[in-house]
């Protein structure tokens, strides 16, 4: 084990450590759900920072590159990932799934490397660090001193399909450990803190977080209250579809809840002004062209889809631009008791941070949720378009009741944003879940051919 408690690695140490880890990580990273560059070999792998968080656990920020080849999920300049690596002589069988491999060479030769987030002991020690604000090399552990976090809460790693990794502690708190790291404050910390400042009760308020100051400032993880007994909107929608239950009451309440969150966001981040539909349409067209480049199935529909963006350029300005959620879908809303809560303000993971934090039309979020009703309805055979249509209607009705404007009266805007979202989904599914590609492709066909 390296002896330093923390480093921005000295070149020799970095080279040494990567001698041990390089090949193992090259094999392991592309198999992780949260790794964006799965479609191309990891041709570059570099160590950006290394901290010995506690004995047997290394905190790493690594840079991965693909020889400048751009990909749908990662930038051509490469990406930065956060890893917590456990290092042991032998790994107990219960941690088998966390295995990364055995180092053959370098300073860790002969030792077993594994993903430390699977290890309850490491997870507990990580919580301890968050409970005691302080520093570890470039890492800063901070929090809201008014919210006590008890010691000894038992950890469990969430096994859901995620863009990051989350640990639940004693059903009281949940820690999201960001995987793909971008410089700056992560909106999933910035936005919930700002909403809490507005007294918005729809978003769990962060109680502790950690960040790095090197190689650049970036948020690494956020701890927030865990809503126990909550179900996400996706699970509830599928249940309702399976049992033939009505979902319009929940959809209406969800629309209201979302309007409440949008109003709080507008108050928390004032002064955004109106969106310029012309430049939004141009950006959407560019995204479409680049998606069609990566996913050939999109190509026949490009002219039809472009017409939605062309129409956007001539639409009335619509509601003012403001901070939005940015990746709203049924999996991002939780129902606990009879209330809806909204989580995960990171935005679409593949978009640059500066874009995700920019003021945008709130129609982007509405379109995201409407697409999600369609996704849910398509999980049933035969497909249930009526179910999705009723949910859309109810959601928009609930939204309009509080927001002061009615999404249903903004047909041109809604069509453009739904199209843009469906294009994103095609790219997302092609990249992460090719079996699901027919779901957004069906919407692409509808939007391109019928335009509704
Ligand atoms: N505050 C919370 N209370 C209860 N469950 C939560 C909470 N925050 C997140 N979750 C659960 O964790 C899952 C992943 O969280 P999310 O923020 O969407 O992570 P990711 O960005 O990695 O996809 C959610 O689908 C939800 O089931
Ligand atoms: O990981 P995140 O939750 O941040 O979001 C990404 O993954 C989502 C899937 O887990 C993906 O959502 C798409 O599939 C959902 C059903 O699984 C559906 O409800 C959404 O409408 C659809 O967009 C999301 O796009 C992606 O950013």
TrEMBL record:
| Pfam families, per database record | Mak_N_cap
Q: Which Gene3D superfamilies match?
A: 3.90.1200.10
Under catalytic activity, the entry for this protein gives: D-maltose + ATP = alpha-maltose 1-phosphate + ADP + H(+)
Q: Which residues form the Maltokinase N-terminal cap domain?
A: 28-119
Keyword Kinase on entry: yes
Q: In which pathway does it act?
A: Glycan biosynthesis; glycogen biosynthesis
Q: Which family does it belong to?
A: Belongs to the aminoglycoside phosphotransferase family.
The protein in question is named Maltokinase
Can you name the source organism? Streptomyces doebereineriae
């Amino acid at each position: 084990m390296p002896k330093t408690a923390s480093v921005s690695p000295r070149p020799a140490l970095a080279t040494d450590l990567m001698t041990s880890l390089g090949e193992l990580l090259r094999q392991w990273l592309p198999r992780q759900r949260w790794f964006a560059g799965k479609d191309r070999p990891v041709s570059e792998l570099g160590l950006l920072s290394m901290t010995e968080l506690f004995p047997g656990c290394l905190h790493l920020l690594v840079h991965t590159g693909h020889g400048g080849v751009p990909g749908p999920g990662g930038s051509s300049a490469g990406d930065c990932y956060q890893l917590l690596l456990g290092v042991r002589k032998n790994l107990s069988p219960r941690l088998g799934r966390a295995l990364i491999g055995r180092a053959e060479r370098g300073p860790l030769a002969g030792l077993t490397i594994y993903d430390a987030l699977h290890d309850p002991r490491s997870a507990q020690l990580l919580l301890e660090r968050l409970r005691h604000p302080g520093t570890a090399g470039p890492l800063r552990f901070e929090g809201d001193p008014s919210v006590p976090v008890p010691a000894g809460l038992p950890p469990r790693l969430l096994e859901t399909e995620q863009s990051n990794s989350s640990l639940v502690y004693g059903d009281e708190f949940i820690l999201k450990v960001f995987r793909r790291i971008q410089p700056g404050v992560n909106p999933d910390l910035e936005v919930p803190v700002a909403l809490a400042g507005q007294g918005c009760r729809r978003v769990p308020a962060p109680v502790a977080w950690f960040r790095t100051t090197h190689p650049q400032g970036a948020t690494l993880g956020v701890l927030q209250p865990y809503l126990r007994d909550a179900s996400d909107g996706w699970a509830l929608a599928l249940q309702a579809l399976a049992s033939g239950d009505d979902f319009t009451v929940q959809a209406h309440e969800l629309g209201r809840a979302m309007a409440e969150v949008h109003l709080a966001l507008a108050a928390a981040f004032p002064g955004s002004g109106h969106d310029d539909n012309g430049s939004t349409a141009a950006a959407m067209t560019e995204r479409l062209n680049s998606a069609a480049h990566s996913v050939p199935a999109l190509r026949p529909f490009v002219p039809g889809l472009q017409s939605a963006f062309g129409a956007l350029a001539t639409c009335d300005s619509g509601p003012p631009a403001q901070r939005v959620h940015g990746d709203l879908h049924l999996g991002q809303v939780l129902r606990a008791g009879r209330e809806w809560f909204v989580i995960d303000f990171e935005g679409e993971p593949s978009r640059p941070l500066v874009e995700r934090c920019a003021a945008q039309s709130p129609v982007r979020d509405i379109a995201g949720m409407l697409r999600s009703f369609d996704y849910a309805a398509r999980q049933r055979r035969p497909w249930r378009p009526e179910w999705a249509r009723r949910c859309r209607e109810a959601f928009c009705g609930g939204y309009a009741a509080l927001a002061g404007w009615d999404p249903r009266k903004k047909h041109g805007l809604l069509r453009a944003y739904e199209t843009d979202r469906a294009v994103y989904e095609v790219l997302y599914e092609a990249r992460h879940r090719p079996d699901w590609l027919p779901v957004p492709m069906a919407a692409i066909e509808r939007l391109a051919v019928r335009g509704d």
